[in-house]
Amino acid sequence: MSDRRPRAAWRRRAEPPPETSSAQPPPAAPNARGPGGAPSNGVRSSVVQSTLYRDGHRVSSPTTLADTFRQLREHPDGMAWIGLQHPTNEELHSLAAEFDLHELAVEDAREAHQRPKLERYGDTLFVVLRAARYLDAPEEVEFGELHVFVGPDFLITVRHGAAPDLSAVRRRMEEDPGLLALGPEAVLYAILDAVVDGYAPVVAGVQNDIDEIETEVFGGDPAVSRRIYELSREMVEFQRATRPLVGMLHALMAGFAKYGTDEELQRYLRDVADHVTHTSERVDGFRQALADILTVNATLVTQQQNAEMRALAEAGFEQNEEIKRISSWAAILFAPTLVGTIYGMNFDSMPELSWRFGYPFAIGLMGAVCVTLYVVFKRRDWL
């Protein structure tokens, strides 16, 4: 791409637009602005910034896509950098018609929810990136999606989500005209570098979360299982964002010789590839660590449940022993009560009432029954 070879669409843009009849006004250009900067057709514009560069320096900043197309035709040696966020179908169709973008790539940019990938359609390179940022307040990772079209004289970024913020990339490139003069490929590598650098705070935040989770696990926090699960899901998403980048960057490096990539850009890309590899390895380590922590937490929960069940069993055993003691003494005390109740009925026809040994017999019977019950319960360890 660095040789900036001409193509049919480029030559078509260099041609002046056809003249229109004075009796018939020209049709409204895509995203044409009315008074106050609002689109004249009432359609929302998603253009974050559109800039035209020549030899690494900013030439102009058109406010609409139509102005960008016109000025790029007037300066065929320039480069257009167009930034969009959640573009409309009309805007994507306009870009596709002007820059000869492949319909499959345009469909991916419209639908979003794509995995990171690298596709080449003729002289146009289509790149899908997944950016990430760590949110301190909720302690979670937020992911964004970025689609990049790279052509001989243009670069189009389509953002879905808050991340990444490309304004810092634009400022950095404008502060280094020599690097920006290398063309759209240099901007692509700068975007790759920004996305990968954005992973570093996420890695640091996740590492801190894992340290906190380890403390909570051994502290017996019952809510830690849910936090482990949620963080594991985020790491799966993070892994999907970083792992494909390794292959993508190696594919770009494999095309250095074929596309005549500048040596400075080659060094930039190798550095980005090193960072991606390091980040991917860290993410793999995080997933393994979370899996191990979840296993340890499950073991600790099981041990705690076993200890609670053992305590309940011991409490139940002690309660049963107390019940046996109480029941034994209740039975022993019930025997004399039964005898005394029978002899206390005072019926006239009871033969023992006039018996001389009736009272000693009743007392002896009570004592004998109590002693017998006591011996029986004692042998059974109920007392």
Note down, in words, how this protein is organized.
The radius of gyration is 42 Å and the shape is rod-shaped. A seven-stranded mixed sheet has the order 2-1-3-7-6-5-4, with helices on both faces. The relative contact order is 0.08. It is an alpha+beta fold. Residues 1-43 have low confidence and may be disordered. The chain contains twelve helices and seven strands. It has helices spanning 8-14, 65-74, 89-99, 103-111, 167-174, 177-180, 184-197, 199-219, 224-254, 256-259, 263-343, 358-379; strands at 47-54, 57-60, 79-85, 117-121, 124-135, 140-150, 154-160. The N and C termini lie far apart (96 Å).
List keywords for this structure.
single chain, alpha+beta, seven-stranded mixed sheet, 12 helices, rod-shaped
Give the secondary structure arrangement, pairings included.
Blueprint: H1 8-14, E1 47-54, E2 57-60, H2 65-74, E3 79-85, H3 89-99, H4 103-111, E4 117-121, E5 124-135, E6 140-150, E7 154-160, H5 167-174, H6 177-180, H7 184-197, H8 199-219, H9 224-254, H10 256-259, H11 263-343, H12 358-379
Parallel strand pairs: 3-7
Antiparallel strand pairs: 1-2, 1-3, 4-5, 5-6, 6-7
Helix pairs in contact: 1-2, 3-4, 7-11, 8-9, 8-11, 9-11, 11-12
